[in-house]
Design a protein that fits this description.
It contains eight helices and nine strands. It is α+β, with helices and mostly antiparallel strands. Strands 1, 2, 3, 4, 5, 6, 7, 8 and 9 form a nine-stranded mixed beta sheet that branches. The protein is globular and about 60 Å long.
Length: 240
Amino acid sequence: MTDDITAAVGAVVNADWNVRTGTVVPTTDTVTLKNGAVEVDAVYLYADMANSSGLARDFAPRTAAKVIRAYLDATCRVIKFRGGQIRSFDGDRVMAIFMGGSKNSEAARCALNINYVVKEIVRPALEARLTSLKSKGFELQHCVGVASGTALIVRGGVRNEDNDLVSIGRPPNVAAKLSDVRAWPYASYITSDVFRRLKDEVKYKNPGKPNQEIMWDGPYSQDAGGASVTVYRSSWQWKP
């Protein structure tokens, strides 16, 4: 076994990447496992449910599973509706990639859409059916992080079915860290690069009118993995 691992690691370290530029979100069958890589200019979105540790600690596994599944199901439906491509799950967190000319606006709008469905659909349905949630003081909360830029997508793992796509770069890392922020009722965080590229309809409540009201607070300096990132945040919700 150790000889196999040594040989495999050596093959990875010593080989050059075969990098191509991607114009659409890659899938596992479009990235070769042997040194294939796709460079993308994309927007990454991470949606993360809050306090899953408390949920697992204080409630029966079947109850906790219903909460997490309901959150992920609703979130994934919104992401797909907004044109995002889901590429990974990590417990109660989902990651999606947006590409195309409106990727920044669609990802930011998606964050506000998710906030709506969590507050207005998922939470009421869970509390109505799972009465122990309210009696024990559990309130479904979440956070969405959005960041844009260049990332490298490769396949990690071994042959057959034991591998998956891995996104490497600043945007996926920052988006993941922003989804960890807990400052309720603020549930949507976007980097300044995303904010600068927003269409007015995603930036203002009444775009083009004298009483237009901006939906994003900022800029703020936010720690993201040991580095300071300029972000905008929102507590707004938008029905998809």
